[in-house]
Amino acid sequence: MSDKPMPRTMAELLGDAPALNWGKWGPDDEVGSLNYLDSAQILRGVASVRSGEVFTLQVQIGPGRSDSEPVWPDRTPSVRTQTMDEGFWLSGRVPETHDGRHWADDKIEMFLQGSTQYDALGHCWYDGHLWNGYDASLSIGGLAKASVLPIGERGVVGRGVLIDMARHRGKKSLDKGESFTHVDLMDAAHAQGIEIEKRDILLIRTGWLSRYYAIPHEEFYADWNEPGLRYSRELVEWFQEMEIPNIATDTVAAEQSVDPVTGVSLILHCALMRNLGVALTEICWLDDLAEACARDGRWSFLYTAAPLKVVGASGAPVNPIVVR
Ligand code: UVW
């Protein structure tokens, strides 16, 4: 048995010399590993298109498919308010227009992290510094650095590869807190007949989101611990060596929520996003895409996405589009 005390904080866990990409793209960078997506990567994505099928990965905003929306437990679902519709004229709440034109208008209040979304690189941090070393005080009142805006301005295009971990493990959905590693990702890819290549955008399906739509919400949220990637130093170094720009998952927060040994939560938000600049796309609907990939055995495609350009925001909704 080692005498070393168990790390209890992010800083203790990740250590004094964590894998870092800070400064790699200059002192002003705000998009991190998305810089890997140069024109060669875009052409590699385009080259993987074969059948012209299109898949949209966003879940519905509002109580459509379900009576609510999947959100991180301390967030609330969106509220859309109708501010104008035919009812306003039928009830006499507004006067008839001079030209007979009527219209519908509405507004929405929602967590910007509350639907399918890109996290800004400055969304999570520890030790007083955001991505690229920016001072955490730059987050006050809105992210002055590493907000989601530069990701929206840039857009994300490249070769995407879907890794269906649920299918690989013979399950409809992974279990609460069930985890996997980069080696598991490579094994699953290999079993699917594809190799993960440098600079691939990784779409990782756990089946967790379809579970949300299949079971009562209380059961979905009970003892919250999502399945997903589990932190290890080796995993982070693999992401760094493979120059992975972006992962997109069908979970609310992209990773195993709580490390079972240390109790530290959302470690990869810090180790991958804050330290390496890997972009996280969460709450993605991957089931239809997975069905199509399994049907013809083609697991790579063109992935495109651009979150809404919300100034200073820590994240923003997105409807990624896959063309295969
Ligand atoms: C949390 O930060 C809790 O999750 P997300 O990355 O989904 O916003």
Q: Which architecture of the largest domain per CATH?
A: 3-Layer(bba) Sandwich
Bound small-molecule species: acetylphosphate
CATH superfamily of the largest domain: Putative cyclase
Rg from Cα: 21 Å
Largest sheet: 9 strands, mixed
Helical stretch count? 11
The top level CATH class name of the largest domain: Alpha Beta
Order of helices and strands: HHEEHEEHEHEHEHHEHEHEHEEE
List unreliable stretches of 5+ residues.
none
Q: Name the helicity range.
A: 25-40%
3D structure, described in words:
- The chain is 25% helix and 17% strand.
- It folds into 2 domains: 18-66 and 113-323, Putative cyclase (Glucose Oxidase, domain 1, 3-Layer(bba) Sandwich); 79-109, no CATH class.
- It has a 9-stranded mixed sheet, with helices on both faces. Strands 2-3 form a two-stranded antiparallel ribbon.
- The protein is globular.
- By secondary structure, the protein is of the alpha/beta class.
- The protein starts with 9 loop residues before the first helix and ends with a strand.
